[in-house]
Amino acid sequence: MSRPEEIAPPEIFYGDIEAKKYTANTRIQNIQSEMTDRALELLALGDDEAKFLLDIGCGSGLSGEILDEDGHYWVGVDVSPSMLEVAVEREVEGDLFLQDIGQGFGFRPGTFDGAISISVLQWLLNADSAAHSPAQRITRFFTTLHGCLRNPSRAVFQFYPSSDDQVHMLTTCAQRAGFGGGVVVDYPNSTKKRKMYLCLMVGHQEVPSGLTEGGMEVDDGSSSKVKNEKRRKARAMASKKMKGKKALGSVDKDWILKKKELYRQRKGVEQVPRDSKFTGRKRKTRF
Amino acid sequence: MVRLITHNMLTCHVKNCTKDNFPLVFENVELEVRPAEANLDFIKRFIPKLEWDALVQTARSIGEDSLPEQMPEDKATLESEEFLQKLHHVLMEIHVEEGQMKCRGCGHIYPISTGIPNMLLAEHEVGR
Questions:
Q1: Between chains, do B42 and A95 touch, taking CB under 8 Å as contact?
Q2: ipTM at complex level
Q3: Which of A211, A259, A269, B30 is the 20 to 30 A CA-CA neighbour of A138?
């Protein structure tokens, strides 16, 4: 699949057609809501109190709706007017702003209790005009964001980097802006389910761990290695058993008779040996 | 859809605009009042974040003068349901649909159309 950020700048790519797609397509909606749920989990807002959150790249407000459901108040920013138009039509609860995040925010210090952003950050890595410098825009974005977040709080970005260099660049810029934290990878061994979250923290906090296929958290102690080894062995055993059964099941008398019948139809009765009580019998070992 | 709660948090983010960049002044506004469910706990927790003077000044400029000039000193009034309801109405239920916001410092105008303020800057106005 081609990367949308290489096709056109966001405000053009997310035009009327793409905006419509986002609301009509239930698959996109499902993926978006799943990622929003996970981002909220990583945000670790703790108690069930309503918070004031920032949704970066809110688009048509799909993730905003989930924030609404949880009773949070939110402000959404997006660079695509078409997507925002859809958000207004859908009557989402949050305040919407047409804003280029690479130009920075103008919110007062300590405004937000947290920030989420779904599939947005990769757009910042592209230079869409001669005046754009990704590094500069990212730095501006992170510094102003750091400024408007409360201490302690978190910002969680789900994003699709195209290389490790990009991840490195983002994390260094974030660190320079004063953030702590790092990258959380969910399902690192699956090509389809693998999702990356940049989990940034204001104030000192610990980085949460990613999800893995078995629903178990990855920890880099030796215990997990042993666990995996056991599971791998069990899987190997199971597949071996299956193979043995299949091999026995596939070349038996029934199978041979079936094949012979087939060749009789194709080549004629004369060409194929007739069936007897010895057909498909195992030979004694002395042969 | 600019509510006063968000407006109270918004400053001008034009390059080198550091003086008088808050609050942005509403001009030629069209308002819409949409009743919203009140979460008074949230409002109570939000009070310390508010710039009271700016809030009252802005509210008056758009013809809403139910709030007192000074933030009530004593805790009882501050946390009374009547006061919080009033605050909820001003912060959450008044939406600015059309008009513009102007920065007193640099004069930058942020137009608002169908409830969405346009915060985009020209390339030379972007801070570094």
A1: no
A2: 0.91
A3: A211
